[in-house]
Amino acid sequence: MANGQEENAALWGETSQSSDYTDWFSTLAIDGLLNTWSHTDTETDPWWRVDLLKVYRVNRVTITNRNGFAYRINGAVIRIGNFLDVYSNTICAVISTLAADATATFSCNGMVGRYVVVHIPGDEKILTLAEVGVYGYLAGNRAVGGAVIQSSTFTGWFAEKAIDSNRGFQQLYTGCSSTLSETNPWWRLDLRDVYRVSEVVITNRNDSYAEQINGAEIRIGNTLENNGNYNPICAVIPAIPAGESYSYSCNGMEGRYVIVHIPGDWKTLTLCEVEVYGYLAGDSLL
Question: pTM (2 decimals)?
Answer without folding.
Answer: 0.70
